[in-house]
Amino acid sequence: MTASSGEPRGRRIVVVFGGGRADASVAGVLASLVSESPADVTGVFIEDLALFRLAELPFTTEVCRVTTMRRPLTTAELERQMRIQASRAERTVRQVAEQVGSRWSFRKHRGRLSSALAEAMDVDLLLLGAARRALATAGELSATARTVRASEAEARRPIAVIVERADVGSRAIDAALELAQRSGRGLILFLPPETSTATAEIARRLQALGPRRVSVRTVSSSDADAMLSAVRRAGPAALVVDAGEGGFEEAKIDALRRDLSCPLLVVRSAALSP
Questions:
Q1: Burial of 138 by CB count in 10 Å (0-12 exposed, 13-18 middle, 19+ buried)?
Q2: Nearest in space to 95 (alpha carbons), one of 138, 43, 154
Q3: Rounded Cα–Cα distance for residues 188 and 157 (Å)
Q4: One digit per residue, pLDDT tens: the chain, 274 residues?
Q5: Phi, psi of 263 (to 5 degrees)
Q6: What is the DSSP-derived secondary structure letter of residue 219?
Q7: Using CA atoms, how far apart are residues 156 and 185, in angstroms rounded to an integer?
Q8: β-pairing, 11-17 with 70-72?
Q9: Is 46 within 8 Å of 113 (Cβ atoms)?
Q10: Exposure string (b/e) for 76-96, b if CB count within 10 Å is 16 or more?
Q11: Would you call 221 helix, strand, or coil by DSSP?
Q12: Residue 259: burial class (beta carbons within 10 Å; 0-12, 13-18, 19+)
């Protein structure tokens, strides 16, 4: 485990990396979160145990995305790739944190996401990338705060938040508003149908507080699949959700990461911002 010195300060943020291409987007969200207020940042690199079990099988191969060539995937090769990806993730956390004077630490964790979440129950914000689709290439994770604002099209992607109740003071809305302001993006609120009567009031209050582009969309059904389908169509740069009373639940988090291609910011309900 690597850590910087100093007393704890500000919010406690845990950032989960998995070595996939999504890790670069996670770095950008982290940079926005800590850009104006100090935080204690803990980076966790998950070494997927399922991948190591696959690598032990004699017929397992990996396919290059560029050349489509196949080659055997051995445990030794997977270990090497994981070390490279973990090193890049640690460098990203260090660079983002040190730019703003935040305290940081980093550790590797081999196993399931649930065991890593169990160690993060007392943090304020949990930031994760989309579920792994491929290991990142050499250039994809070297980006930090400077490269996250890469293209004009990327910059237009909004921040989305799922609002389970019509409460403008909820921590999920606060975090989404903060992220939209700091990244210069628009903000979209997704509400279930039972909150539709509060839509106009929520939009009016947020417009006065935050980004220039605020929209509120009422989803026709409270069904989780309908809500996620609406979020996917919006193509957000990040999705913010409330952890709920049960804390960071692996099943809920895994479902969101599998269905979406953007970073996920989970806000712990019981904590308050400094």
A1: exposed
A2: 43
A3: 10
A4: 666 655 556 789 999 988 767 778 898 899 999 988 879 999 999 887 666 666 666 656 665 555 556 666 677 777 888 888 889 999 999 999 999 899 999 999 887 777 777 767 778 999 998 875 445 444 444 443 344 444 555 678 899 998 876 555 578 888 998 898 888 888 998 888 766 555 666 666 676 665 568 888 888 877 788 888 999 999 999 999 988 766 677 778 888 888 888 999 999 865 434 4
A5: -60, 150
A6: -
A7: 6
A8: unpaired
A9: yes
A10: eebeebbeebbebbbbbbbbb
A11: coil
A12: middle
What is the separation, in whole angstroms, between the first and last Cα of the chain?
A: 27
Q: What is the DSSP string of 10-22?
A: SEEEEEEE-SBTT
CB under 8 Å to 6, separation ≥6 — which residues?
103
- Going from the N-terminus, what domains does the chain have, and what CATH number goes with each? 10-128 (3.40.50.620), 152-267 (3.40.50.620)
Pull the structure tokens for residue 107.
Answer: 């550790």
Tokens of 218: 């009422």
Question: What distance lies between CA 123 and its chain's CA centroid?
Answer: 14
Q: Do you know the residue count of the chain?
A: 274
Could you tell me which of 250, 255, 267, 259 has the C-alpha nearest to residue 112? 250
Return the ∠ at Cα 240 (arms to 50 and 24), rounded to 5°.
55
d(CA 153, CA 106): 32
**Residue 11, token pair as written in the block:** 């919010």
